[in-house]
Specification:
By secondary structure, the protein is an alpha/beta fold. The chain contains six helices and eleven strands.
Length: about 280
């Protein structure tokens, strides 16, 4: 292969953003996560197969006699690249306990309320103490399509699809348990957690209004954005989507790992307590 031809192909990949996707996938894999690109999901709104740029997941499970417990942590991501900054308009929040309500999760054998603190403790929302409510793609023509909006819609749809697929077994198991006369049936206490994120290869900025009326901006690594979307498939209505810069993805993965561990520790604590009663 001629060097000039190879250079042109690589430049084209970088321009298309595919190089950013490969870097994101490699970052997850090097961190010990399962990860695949072009993850397909069924879009029930369009009644067709669609795909997202990246699906990563980690499982932590323990089997003890007739009880299995643990956490599956999923990250569904779109990867976007732009030379133009994205600006997140932020608002402060003193109360982030509702973070667990905004999550896309299925909980088998446990109450959601018992896990609220562990689900929220290591979230980006809890760590920053603010959330974004709108995104401005800088220096765009007014009639240009919004890359951020389409990415948000896709990751929310794919996250709901992922949750539905991963929770189907547990829903069936819970249904069977209700009909079972077995005094010591096989049980599962499991959290299926799916986080929709947008990985941004570019400059991410947070903007807010000061008391003086001036606008303050700062470059940031990541941002939790409250996204309102409803469709036949996405009935939740309010989603919390994290935007993560590609250069900060490694740090975000570590935060997600800690978040999974916190949820897992709580599941273990609740499960062992119930078996000891």
């Amino acid at each position: 292969m001629e060097q000039e031809f190879e250079r042109k192909v690589i430049e084209d990949l970088e321009k298309s953003g595919f190089n950013s996707e490969l870097r994101a996938i490699r970052t997850f894999i090097s961190s010990g996560w399962n990860c695949t690109g072009f993850a397909n999901f069924f879009d029930v709104d369009q009644e067709t197969i669609a795909s997202i740029d990246l699906l990563a997941w980690q499982d932590k499970f323990v089997r003890q006699d007739n009880l299995r417990y643990g956490v599956q942590f999923n990250i569904n991501a779109e990867v976007k690249k732009s030379e133009k900054p994205w600006v997140v308009f932020k608002e402060m929040s003193l109360h982030v306990n509702d973070d667990y309500i905004n999550n896309i999760a299925y909980i088998c054998g446990l109450t959601p309320f018992s896990l609220r603190q562990s689900m929220s403790a290591d979230s980006i929302y809890s760590k920053l103490g603010w959330r974004g409510y709108s995104i401005h793609e800088s220096f765009q023509e007014s009639d240009a399509p919004s890359d951020s909006y389409s990415a948000f819609v896709k990751v929310c749809k794919s996250a709901e699809s992922r949750l539905s697929a991963c929770s189907a077994y547990y829903k069936e198991l819970e249904g069977n348990l209700k009909q079972s006369n077995n005094p010591n049936p096989y049980k599962e206490r499991v959290v299926i957690f799916v986080k929709p994120i947008v990985i941004f290869d570019g400059t991410l900025i947070a903007a807010s209004m000061l008391d003086t009326g001036d606008v303050s901006i700062e470059e940031i690594k990541f941002a939790p954005v409250e996204f309102y979307y409803t469709s036949k498939h996405c009935t939740k209505g309010v989603y919390l989507v994290d935007i993560v810069t590609l250069k900060s993805l490694q740090g975000y993965i570590e935060i997600s790992k800690n978040r999974q561990q916190a949820i897992y520790d709580k599941v273990v604590s609740l499960s062992e307590k119930s078996t000891g009663e």
